[in-house]
Design brief:
CATH class of the largest domain: Alpha Beta
Number of helices: 9
Distance between the termini: 60 Å
Keywords: DNA-binding, Transcription, Transcription regulation
Organism: Ciceribacter selenitireducens ATCC BAA-1503
CATH architecture of the largest domain: 3-Layer(aba) Sandwich
Largest sheet: 5 strands, mixed
Helix content: 25-40%
Structural class: alpha/beta
Protein name: HTH lysR-type domain-containing protein
InterPro entries: LysR-type_TF_proteobact-type, LysR_HTH_N, LysR_subst-bd, WH-like_DNA-bd_sf, WH_DNA-bd_sf
Pfam families: HTH_1 (PF00126), LysR_substrate (PF03466)
Amino acid sequence: MPQENFNDLVAFVMVAREESFTKAAVKLGVSQSALSQTVRGLEERLGLRLLTRTTRRVSPTAAGERLLKTAGPRFEEIQAELSALSEMRDKPAGTVRITSGEHAAISVLAPALEKFLPDNPDVNVEITVDYGLTDIVAERYDAGVRLGEQLAKDMIAIRIGPEMRMAVVGAPSYFRQNPWPEVPQDLTRHNCIQIRMPTHGNILSWEFEKDGHELKVRVEGQLVFNNIAMRLDAVRRGLGLAYMPEDQVAELIASGEVVRVLEDWCEPFPGYHLYYPNRRHTSPAFALVVEALRYRG
């Protein structure tokens, strides 16, 4: 049936249930004459009498009864779904998909969501760890996480973490057999635990800066990992030097379990930002997640 007849069906269902044009007109907010004309037009298009009209009451014919049983429940389902959608507008619900690197997921997203999720039981957050510069629009993510210096200019960016520093660390047992590096170039003579980026497959260069002088060192070593936990375990075992986010090794440095070197070459740099496309309409759930992640330090 053409969509333009749906209003006719709604009018018929209301009259058949109320068994009165007067009561149905009041509920629909139309005049009795307009409602009568609408139902009559439906009957003419179908070529069937749907309602029997008397001075006392209006009742469906056999054809009208069949149509009422078929169409009535459908309109109830539609109305229930519309009401549910309205509740979603007022009560945030749904899934928010975020792509992020491992460190950002551990150090920024997890602590913020630990506070946020218990108070928002109808909001789900899906985090995919990906070190590449993911196209969040093409991959249908709601947002991504990147360092501030990697942000695309056509995206909205919200700062979600403090400035960061890297740290070069080694176990005391390693330094009992190897000299301390005095400058970053000395790392080429050390057994360095390398980092392979899972997405592109390349080995990450270690980046340094001092007094405005930037330097990248391509290190070598016996071990290559693509995650934080295995690098951290290897350095604690004395198997080489590791280039780690400072927050991941701060407690180990304080306890003396690992030793930090080249600290004066590890300058702060812009921390993590949440980025997403410029949309006129975002879901209430997404808006809440953004506010929960926003850095206020």
